[in-house]
Amino acid sequence: MATKTKVVFTGVKQVELQQEELPVLADGEILVKNDVSLISTGTELTCLEANVDPDSMWATKSIKYPMLPGYSMVGTIVAAGKDAPADLIGKRVMYGKGHATHHVLPAACDDVNFYNLVPDSVSSADATFATLGCIVMASIRVAKIRPGEACVVYGAGLIGQMVARLAKVAGATRVIVTDVSDLRLDLLPQDPCFIPVNSAKEDPVARVKELTNGRGADVLFETTSIGELIQQQMNCLAYAQGGRLIITSSPKHKSMIDLDYVSRAALTIIGANNVSTHIAAESKENRWTRRNDFDYILDLMDKKLLDVSKLVTHEFDGMDVVRAYEMLMADRTQAMGVLLNWGE
Known about the structure:
This protein is of the alpha/beta class. It contains 12 helices and 15 strands. The strands form 3 sheets. Strands 3, 4, 5, 6, 7, 14 and 15 form a 7-stranded mixed sheet that branches. Strand 9, helix 6 and strand 10 form a beta-alpha-beta unit. Helix 4 crosses helix 11 and helix 7 packs parallel to helix 8.
């Protein structure tokens, strides 16, 4: 009987590879042999280390062991069950399942269970970033960036890097990105639109005001998951001029904010969780389901309008996954995109 190998978090800071038998394909199912997957550093390490408030939504809703980590996978369809189109065999697909050698998927997609075909011009490594792009598009769409607006991105990790790039695509002409790591900031595109600010070396609020002629930013994206920074982030926004704070991350700890300041500054705070923000099904007014945003991101890559190639800093054989997580737990600031290769 054929088997698959999968990654499992069995407890706090505990990672295992486990094997199980592959099921016989049912009618309408396909088998995908995976090529590569991307570790979502922030989400997966939060789940692995469990350094969260005990009454947080992370603790009560998200972190449950055993856990199957990962949601950014690219593979090749190698078999099709009865009633599944045989011409799918050999196609590369991108989809949101956990790190493993194989997955069985329904051949017929809907807005919950789906995969997206990867364009020939897009590498499998680049295509793994489509999930992050889809997550970020939830924030970009609710931010309603207007041409010429100035945006700030707090955090230059994987999500922050994607926010910065897609904010420019959406029309921002100045994207100020702040982080404490020069390594991360150096991975921003070499483009005058992007302005790195190391918040360990200079005051980000003062720098944002300087770069916006004292006005402040129109939109700020929170991607750090550090709740203590929320008030500082609000101070970066334009006062009484429609400033929008977009909560792209899922902060791990409680936040204290001055609601009187929110009122006086006429700020708008918008939560932008990927699953909650994306619509479940297309309508005449809004067609941007998660599946359609996956296609949008892959199309941007195909047209060379979104470049993520420089974001890969580490690659591991999938069977060496424990070492990958050990490296990240030791110091995640020295890594960005970490790929797991599952091919032979």
